[in-house]
């Protein structure tokens, strides 16, 4: 059951970053093809990284790579949030963003994907080692399904609740006077219909990233010894159908 808990909760720390960063960039006017350009140089990484990590993931402690990459990926989530925060300062008068901005994102995204691939490869390697070969791929499929589910439900959750962390004020046109709040779509329409401006006071994206980061750090502290223990369990003990001793 502890293994199930690990698989279902490990990716909560990355939910806000993975699920909302691109949406924030689009909201700031960054073109979708510009966002997609970050992945141009990932193919060499996908080829080279498994080869570089082969020795570590093929050994008796493949999850050591996971434990190394996990806090690194949390840090990259904070870096992403910082880049999103400073994105408006890169915007030119014509509404476009310079090539230097996209270059910064490519570098940051590249380092982020290194940690993401390390986590993925180490978990896949461990699942392959502990899966019972006597029942085919069913065991490994179950573990990978739980792992994928653990990456999907936090995204849905934080996409749903982030609006509750977001607060907007209706500002009188041409002044800095706050008339009222405009947190709901209806209130925003009422504000803008009278010529006033609905401005963001607190962006829920950054709060969500902060909450996920704190959860991730607590998760890492709690489950670190558990994950180390998983690697010390003899592989035969993970089998569903154990060999009979004579």
TrEMBL record:
GO terms for molecular function: acetyl-CoA transmembrane transporter activity. The keyword Transmembrane helix applies. The keyword Zinc does not apply. Pfam families: Acatn. InterPro entries: AcetylCoA_trans_1-like, AmpG_permease/AT-1, MFS_trans_sf. Residues 1-15 form the signal peptide. It is a multi-pass membrane protein. This is Acetyl-coenzyme A transporter 1.
């Amino acid at each position: 059951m502890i293994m199930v808990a690990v698989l279902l909760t490990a990716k909560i720390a990355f939910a806000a970053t993975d699920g909302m960063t691109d949406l924030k960039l689009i909201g700031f006017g960054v073109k979708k093809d510009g966002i997609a350009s970050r992945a141009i140089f990932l193919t060499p990484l996908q080829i080279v990284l498994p080869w570089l990590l082969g020795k570590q993931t093929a050994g008796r402690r493949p999850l050591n790579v996971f434990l190394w990459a996990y806090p690194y990926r949390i840090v990259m989530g904070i870096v992403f949030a910082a880049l999103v925060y400073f994105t408006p300062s890169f915007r030119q008068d014509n509404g476009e963003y310079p090539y230097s901005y996209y270059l910064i994102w490519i570098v940051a995204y590249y380092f982020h994907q290194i940690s993401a691939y390390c986590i993925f490869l180490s978990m896949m390697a461990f699942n392959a080692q502990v899966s019972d070969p006597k029942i085919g791929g069913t065991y490994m499929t179950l573990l990978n399904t739980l792992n994928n589910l653990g990456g999907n439900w936090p995204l849905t959750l934080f996409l749903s609740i982030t609006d509750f962390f977001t607060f907007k004020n209706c500002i009188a046109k041409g002044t800095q006077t706050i008339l009222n709040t405009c947190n709901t779509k209806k209130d925003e329409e009422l504000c803008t219909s009278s010529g006033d401006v609905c401005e963001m006071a607190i962006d829920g994206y950054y709060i969500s990233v902060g909450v996920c980061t704190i959860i991730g750090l607590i998760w890492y502290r709690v489950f670190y010894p558990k994950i180390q223990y998983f690697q010390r369990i003899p592989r035969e003990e993970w089998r569903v159908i154990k060999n009979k001793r004579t």
